[in-house]
Amino acid sequence: QVQVVQSGGGLVQAGGSLSLSCVASRLRFSRYAMGWFRQAPGKEREFVAAVSWSLSNTVYADSVKGRFTISRDNARNTLLLQMNSLRPEDTALYYCAAREYDGDYPPRYGYEYWGQGTQVTVSS
Hints:
Elements: E1 3-8, E2 10-13, E3 18-25, E4 32-39, E5 46-51, E6 58-60, E7 68-73, E8 78-83, E9 92-100, E10 113-114, E11 118-123
Parallel strand pairs: 2-11
Antiparallel strand pairs: 1-3, 3-8, 4-5, 4-9, 5-6, 7-8, 9-10, 9-11
C-alpha cells in the first residue's frame, strides 16, 4: 500500500520562511508527478505547486509564484516545498500528493495518493 508521509510546517510570522517535505513509499516514485495542495478553514482544497517526474518542469498557483519553490529527490523518494515571504493568507493545512503521470508538464488535478496534511500558520 502506497504511503505518503509529510513533515515540516509550523508557526511563523509574516515574511518568514518554512519548508515542507514528504516521503512516498511503495511506489515507483520516478513515474509520478508530485504536487502540493492546501486547504484553509472554510475553503476548498486548492492547488499550490507541482513538479514533473523528471524535474524538468514545475507549475505554481499564481498566489505563490515567486515565493514558493517545489523540488524533488527521486533517489530518496522525497518531495520538498520551500516557502518564503509567507503571508497570513498562506495559513492552511498543506497536503503532499502523487499521481502516476509521465507527461512533461505536471497536472494540477487527478492526484491519487495523499499525505496526512501538515499545518502551516502565518501570523500577522
